Amino acid sequence: MLGQDSAIDVYRQALPVILVSLVAGLFSGTLLGTEAMREGIESVPGILLLLPAFLATRGGVYGSLGARLSSGLHQGLIDPHFEWNDRLRNAIVASFLNGMIVSVFIAVLSWGVSLVLSREANLLELLIVLIVAALLSAFAMLGVLLTVIFKGYRRGLDPDNVIGPVVTTVGDVFGVVFLLIGISVAGVVL
Q1: What is the C-alpha to C-alpha distance for residues 171 and 66, in angstroms, rounded to an integer?
Q2: Mean pLDDT of the residues in the chain
Q3: How many other CB atoms are found less than 10 A from the CB of residue 36?
Q4: At 96, which CATH number?
């Protein structure tokens, strides 16, 4: 019976988050189909190459942070009442830096692949787009992630059951929006 109760708890906690994730994912896909996004994609050669990698790395980088914080809460290494300490600060800074470094790498790689495919791409433009998008998504991801983990944990939710869908959803929805903002900023700067 203990195993069955545990499975029921996991479904009870995760199912609502997964359903919200489904709806938000559909919204994110709808954003990709808008005229503004199509124009943005067409205006920045190479952006379509980096889109999947950028969205995937949001989940990877911030999902790792969520898992690290969840483990810290379960082990008693992190206080469930949000409090800045070295362990929390180091985890957040490492995730932020990983997200920014990976985004720069994605921009350079996308530019390189564009050159190999004999397509015109502007490295500076791709860098501006991804740095802006990565910076904005870092703040959004960190805000949502920390709120869900700490408030959820204090209310009896196991962060391991909810953080995966939350990170994926926030990364996809905000990632698409912030790429569009990055395209706009690059258009103004260049």
Answers
A1: 13
A2: 88
A3: 11
A4: 1.10.357.20
Contact 94, 113 (CB under 8 A): no
- pTM over cut 0.90: no
* Burial class of 121 by CB neighbour count within 10 A (0 to 12, 13 to 18, 19+): buried
Give how many domains the chain has, as a whole number: 1
pLDDT at 117: 92
Give Cβ neighbours of residue 50 (< 8 Å, ≥ 6 apart). Answer: 106, 107, 109, 110, 126, 130
Separation in Å, CA 172 to CA 5, 23, 38, 144, 151: 32, 12, 17, 13, 22
Report the b/e string of 127-156 with b at 16+ CB within 10 A.
bbbbbbbbbbbbebbbebbbebbbebbeee
The range of the structural domain enclosing residue 79 comes to 2-189
pLDDT for residue 2: 39
Question: What pLDDT is attached to residue 5?
Answer: 56
Percent of the chain that is helix, strand, coil (3-state, to 5): 85, 0, 15
Model pLDDT for residues 22-78, shown as the tens digit of each residue: 787 787 778 777 887 788 888 898 898 899 999 999 989 999 999 999 999 989 888
Distance CA 98, CA 37 (A): 26
Q: Supply the DSSP string of 56-83, one letter for each residue.
A: HHHHHHHHHHHHHHHHHHHHTSS-SS--
